[in-house]
Automatic annotation (TrEMBL):
Name this polypeptide is given: Aldehyde dehydrogenase
Keywords linked to the UniProt accession: Oxidoreductase
Keyword hit for Oxidoreductase: yes
Family: Belongs to the aldehyde dehydrogenase family.
CDD domains, alphabetized: ALDH_AldA-AAD23400
Lineage: Bacteria, Pseudomonadati, Pseudomonadota, Alphaproteobacteria, Parvularculales
Ranges for domain Aldehyde dehydrogenase: 18-463
Organism the protein comes from: Hyphococcus luteus
Signal peptide start-end: none
PANTHER family named among the record's database cross-references: ALDEHYDE DEHYDROGENASE-RELATED
Length: 470
């Protein structure tokens, strides 16, 4: 692969001020160069977005939406190429990469079809109050490395449809799919409407404090999210924060352990566990604990761990060296505090591979239960009392999502209603849909993405309140 990747600034594909290596996590070797923006290039990108806002925000919404639809079509036409590049830079198996690309296409298409209508809040005795929504200005999109493409589209779709412009910055370890998208977007969007800059973690603070940026749409860790919020406070920027999670799966006592173990396992191991809403701890009734754990261990041992490009690979590498080292710390804690019944080690091969790991008999205060492991490691805990398990699931600074698995749907739904998180899925996992709002509670985030609420986040309500002149 010798593609010459370029930044996108003011309708031009431009080289960076310097460049850095992009590593394939399946080998640990650099396979491409990424252009790196300096402060000057960032300033050019912000200025381009600010200038483009003047025309873009005034275009009819249907015209803007049509272009978002065209972005979706252009992505679809090159879906295979994007999926392969995503696997190369991110590590996920090719079928999961294609799933992300298809999700990105669907998300853009869904937003192209959404509109925020003007509302009449009052129309009586000559007093008319209308509320309409106006765009904010330049939006900074800052994305992480686990789903580089779809997380950008969750922001770009609503940003453009509502009349804002964007400066997007991907994570340093997965910049290439965003840059490739910039190439096709440049054929469709007017100059300056979307600008893309890349960095090695230096530009984020400059973007979140920039006086000409009106909103920061951030997805990443809670620790960085707090910095974003602090930095954005100076100019009272709008922020949406999609942050970390430590989602619990609660297994009810009426399920077939074998069937549900399979579903919980998949929810924990997809994308090598690097999903904000991955199942990060499982709570299982004591009566079926042994059988459930045995089934999980069997599934883990049978999992094909390999390079994402290899046909049949089910779990790929962890995305980057830093995360790989972090997951190894979780493994050390798991080995010390609990009983590892599958995996437990990094694989002895190049790249950042961790064997799918299942740990049982852990105390509730173990690191892997309390913190976000963000890797293919599943702690399994037992419970006897439903109130107790709900309290344990809720005893977290996070509140992103969670799952409840039960045959008696009413009982399962009752438990779901008591889980303190933005989303709870019952008998399914990862049912994220561009038409359904998604947001985290507690330290998992602020504001939301997707659905009509996702559009509102990119607008300012504007009220006009009139009476006749008498
Ligand atoms: P991260 O916070 O380290 O980085 C995210 C982005 O922020 C990167 O682009 C990075 O360059 C940038 N950044 C770094 N320092 C910054 C600063 N001071 N100011 C502004 N930007 C800065 O996160 P990560 O490790 O790339 O991603 C993993 C995390 O993301 C996990 O915690 C995961 O749960 C979370 N996540 C959340 C969601 C969600 O929707 N809630 C989705 C995916 C991932």
């Amino acid at each position: 692969m010798t593609h010459d990747y370029k930044l996108l600034i003011n309708g031009k594909l431009v080289p960076g001020a310097s460049e850095f290596d992009v590593v394939n996590p399946a080998t640990g070797d650099a396979f491409a160069k990424c252009p790196k923006a300096d402060v000057d290039l960032l300033e050019q990108a912000v200025k381009a977005a600010k200038d483009a806002f003047k025309d873009w925000s005034k275009r009819p919404v249907d015209e803007r939406a049509e272009m978002v639809g065209k972005l979706s079509e252009a992505l679809e036409a090159r879906a295979d190429e994007f999926a392969r590049l995503l696997t190369a830079e991110q590590g996920k198996p090719l079928d999961q990469a294609m799933y992300e690309v298809m999700g990105a296409i669907f998300t853009l298409r869904a937003f192209a079809g959404m509109r925020l209508e003007q509302r009449t809040l009052r129309d009586e005795d000559g007093n008319k109050v209308i509320e309409h929504r106006t765009p904010l200005g330049v939006v900074a999109s800052i994305t992480p490395w686990n789903f580089p493409l779809i997380l950008l589209m969750n922001k770009l779709g609503p940003c453009l449809v509502t009349g804002n412009t964007m400066v997007a910055k991907p994570a340093p370890t997965t910049p290439l799919t965003t840059l490739l998208f910039g190439e096709l977007a440049n054929e469709i969007l007017p100059a300056g409407v979307l600008n893309i800059v890349c960095d090695e973690n230096e530009l984020g603070p400059l973007m979140t404090s920039h006086p000409d940026i009106a909103k920061v749409a951030f997805t990443g860790s809670t620790a960085t999210g707090k910095k974003v919020m602090q930095s954005a406070a100076e100019s009272v920027k709008r922020v949406t924060l999609e942050l970390g999670g430590n989602d619990a799966a609660i297994v009810m006592d009426d399920v077939d352990p074998k069937m549900v173990a399979q579903k919980v396992y998949e929810g924990a191991m997809k994308n090598a566990g690097q999903i904000c809403v991955a199942i990060k701890r499982a709570y299982v009734p004591e009566a079926m604990y042994d059988e459930f754990c045995d089934e999980l261990a069997k599934l883990a041992k049978d999992t094909v761990v390999d390079e994402g490009m290899k046909q049949g690979a089910q779990v790929g590498p962890v995305q980057n060296k830093m995360q790989y080292e972090k997951v190894k710390e979780f493994l050390a804690d798991a080995r010390e505090k609990g009983k590892v019944i599958a995996g437990g080690e990094a694989l002895d091969r190049p790249g950042y591979f961790i064997a799918p790991t299942v740990v049982r008999d852990l105390p509730e205060d173990a690191k892997v239960v309390q913190e976000e492991q963000f890797g293919p490691v599943l702690p399994v805990l037992k419970y006897n009392d439903i109130d107790d398990v709900i309290a344990r699931a809720n005893d977290s600074e996070y509140g992103l999502a969670g799952t409840v698995w039960g045959k008696d749907l009413k009982r399962a739904m009752d438990v779901a209603m008591r889980i303190d998180s933005g989303t709870v899925w019952v008998n399914q996992h990862l049912a994220i849909d561009a038409n359904i709002p998604f947001r985290g509670s507690k330290q998992s985030g602020m504001g939301g993405e997707l659905g009509l609420e996702g559009l509102y986040e990119y607008t300012q309500p504007h009220v006009v309140n009139s009476v006749p002149l008498e």
